[in-house]
Amino acid sequence: MNASRRDSTSATTACGSCNKSSTFKFQPQGSSAVFDVEIPRGIILAFCEVGVGEKADVVESLGACWKRLNEEWRAAKLKPVVIGVRATAEFNPPVPEPGPDFISEMLRQEQCSNDPKVKEEVLQLVRFCQYRQLNAPWIMPLMSRAALQAIRDNDHEFFKRLGRQLEKTAITFTPPKEGTPLEKLLLEHWITQDEAGPQFCCFTDQALADFLHLVAPSANPTFDSVRKTRQRLQLRQTHKKLVKVSRCVGRKVVLA
At 103, is the pLDDT very low, low, confident or very high (cuts 50, 70, 90)? Predict the structure, then answer.
C-alpha cells in the first residue's frame, strides 16, 4: 500500500478559534498536483486514539479488497489455460479403455467429434499467444477437429474468421476491468501509515465527496458514487466519523 505525500509543514492557529491545526501536503494518487490540507489537531488526536482493534478492522478490509483484485488478475492470467483444458476435455476426450462403459464412451466421443461448437472454442483460443503455434499438441487436435467440422458444414466463414483472428496481435490474457479513478483514490488513501494526514476511512461520505471534488474533480466524486464505491469495495469506516466537513478556504482545503 503506497502512502500518499503527506508532509507536515506547519502548525498554525485556525481562524476564529484557539484550536491548533496542522497543514499537510496531499498528493492524490495518479496526480502531479499537490494540495495544502489543514486538519485540526483535535481530528488528528481523535484518530490516534481510535482503538487498535478498530484500526485493524479497517486495515483488514483494505487488505481483503487488494486480495480480491489480485485474485481477479490471477484468474485472468490462468483463463487461457482453463479454456484450453476445458475445450480439450469436451471436444477431444481420450480414447476410452475397454470396460462396461466402453460403448457409451465411444458414442460420446463420436458426438464430441461432430460438435460444431468446437469451431467457436478454437476461435477463442487462437486469440492467446499460447495457442498460436498451431501444431503444438495442446491445440493441434482441437484445430484439426474444428477444421474438419467446418469442411463438413461447408463453413467458409469459419476459415475467414480464423484468418482474421490470426492476423491480430496475440494477447497473453485478457486483463480484468481497470479500476475507476475513484476506486484507485479510495484504495490508495483509505488508511495510511502516516496517522497525522488525511485518512479517508474516518470521513463521512459527504465530506469525502466534497474533499475529492476539490483535489481530484476528474474522478467525478459525488455523495452517491463515493458511498456506492466504498460499499462495493467493502471498505470499512471508523465507527466515529471524525471529518464531517471539507471546504476550500483561500488556497487551502480545510477539514473539520
Answer: low
Query: Residue 93 sits in which domain range?
Result: 77-167
* Listed residues 167, 192, 220: the one ending a domain: 167
Please indicate, yes or no, if residue 89 is contained in any of the structural domains.
yes
- What pTM was computed for the model? 0.66
155 in the same domain as 119: yes
Residues 6+ apart with CB under 8 A from 116: 149, 153
pLDDT tens readout for residues 153-192: 999 999 999 999 999 998 888 888 888 999 999 999 999 8
